[in-house]
């Protein structure tokens, strides 16, 4: 190994050591940091040096080949969270960098018990299911592959049979439960138990979203594309589609009581007979408005955020700027345009300029 590679590896080790110093082993959300490390998860560092709790480290030691899938699952969840909320007051802001930045990855929202907490846990659990299942289907692991339960059968009368490689989402869900679900009995304090129960439920809601959106893909067989017989298999939806479903669940999330007797129930007494479904997102506390900066909670506020002057939606200046108004400034854009191919052999373009109004919250 050359000197540059040794220096890079030593810096990598120092980075993970700093992560471990920042986060206690028992925290549930530490693994999420693996999704922002641009270098991925180097297996040479070993499970003991990753920001995981004791149960996760033990599972990691037994299945180290899953580390790339865990990292990819975290990356998927973070990316989709930021995509779904990019135009909202809370825009799923994550820490700008790993240590020396000492803030948690999702800041205040990770433990606030709000609707935002619910979405974070659900989308991260879904990301892990999606990534592990994809890895199984790609043949990257020996203990899982395609869903073997669908290899036989079909509908002869309808002219199709199971074939191809169906995504084994059940294995992905099993691993996600093993890796993420921390037993409630291991938590202390009334508030911690309620929050843990909420997080466990939202983890499962994220997994259920992946399973619910499984779709049937088919390929035709027959003379001249007649589709006399079809081979079909089940596949996961794109993670963007799963993210949209979870965003809808977020918009319709259920507030629960901060007290648990035998099971969780709705906060409003007149609604407690309405059952809570396993795919509902649950929250305990109402969200702050995210309008004004709160350094104590790590809320940046919306000052300086770009808004859409003509929109009536969440990205509109009226809503995003919380009634404070907005500033307008002109941005000059320069780009190549009206390009033509000249024989022979180059492209000639004009230099075009345009002016655009950009609106930012006061």
UniProtKB/TrEMBL annotation:
InterPro entries in the cross-refs: Wnt, Wnt16, Wnt_C, Wnt_CS
Keyword terms: Developmental protein, Disulfide bond, Extracellular matrix, Glycoprotein, Lipoprotein, Secreted, Signal, Wnt signaling pathway
Main location per the UniProt record: secreted
Lineage: Eukaryota, Metazoa, Chordata, Craniata, Vertebrata
Protein name: Protein Wnt
SMART domains hit by this protein: WNT1
Record's signal peptide: 1-29
GO cellular component: cytoplasm; extracellular space
Domain of life: Eukaryota
Function statement: Ligand for members of the frizzled family of seven transmembrane receptors.
Gene3D superfamilies (alphabetical): 3.30.2460.20
Family: Belongs to the Wnt family.
Pfam family, any one: wnt
The UniProt record lists the keyword Disulfide bond: yes
One GO BP annotation of this record: cell fate commitment
Subcellular location: Secreted, Extracellular space, Extracellular matrix
PROSITE patterns for this protein: WNT1
GO terms for MF: cytokine activity; frizzled binding
CDD domains found in the cross-reference section: Wnt_Wnt16
């Amino acid at each position: 190994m050359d000197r540059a590679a040794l220096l890079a590896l030593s810096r990598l080790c120092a980075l993970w050591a700093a992560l471990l110093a920042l986060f206690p082993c028992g925290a549930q959300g530490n693994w999420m940091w693996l999704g922002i490390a641009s270098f991925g998860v180097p297996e040479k560092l070993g499970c003991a040096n990753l920001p995981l709790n004791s149960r996760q480290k033990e599972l990691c030691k037994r299945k180290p080949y899953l580390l790339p899938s865990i990292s990819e699952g975290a990356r998927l969840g973070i990316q989709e969270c930021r995509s779904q909320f990019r135009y909202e007051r809370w825009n799923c802001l994550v820490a700008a960098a790993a240590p020396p930045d000492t803030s948690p990855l999702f800041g205040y929202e990770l433990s606030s018990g709000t609707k935002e907490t619910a979405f974070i846990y659900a989308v991260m659990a879904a990301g892990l299911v999606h990534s592990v299942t994809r890895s199984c289907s790609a043949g990257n692991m020996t203990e899982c592959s395609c869903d073997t339960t669908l290899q036989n059968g079909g509908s002869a009368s309808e002219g199709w049979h199971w074939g191809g490689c169906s995504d084994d989402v059940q294995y992905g869900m099993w691993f996600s439960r093993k890796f993420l679900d921390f037993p409630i009995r291991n938590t202390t304090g009334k508030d911690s138990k309620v929050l843990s129960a909420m997080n466990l439920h939202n983890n499962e809601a994220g997994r259920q979203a992946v399973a619910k959106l499984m779709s049937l893909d088919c390929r035709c067989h027959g003379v001249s594309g007649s589709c006399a017989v079809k081979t079909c298999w089940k596949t996961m939806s794109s993670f963007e589609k799963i993210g949209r479903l979870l965003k809808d669940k977020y918009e319709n999330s259920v507030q629960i009581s901060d007290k648990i007797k035998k099971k969780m129930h709705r906060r409003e007494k007149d609604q407690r007979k309405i059952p809570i479904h396993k795919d509902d997102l649950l929250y305990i506390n109402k969200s702050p408005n995210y309008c004004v900066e709160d350094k104590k909670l790590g809320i940046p506020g919306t000052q300086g955020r770009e808004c859409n002057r003509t929109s009536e939606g969440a990205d509109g200046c009226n809503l995003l700027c919380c009634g404070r108004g907005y500033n307008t400034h002109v941005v000059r854009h320069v780009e190549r345009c009206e390009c033509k191919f000249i024989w022979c052999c180059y492209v000639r373009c004009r230099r075009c300029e345009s002016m655009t109004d950009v609106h930012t919250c006061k």
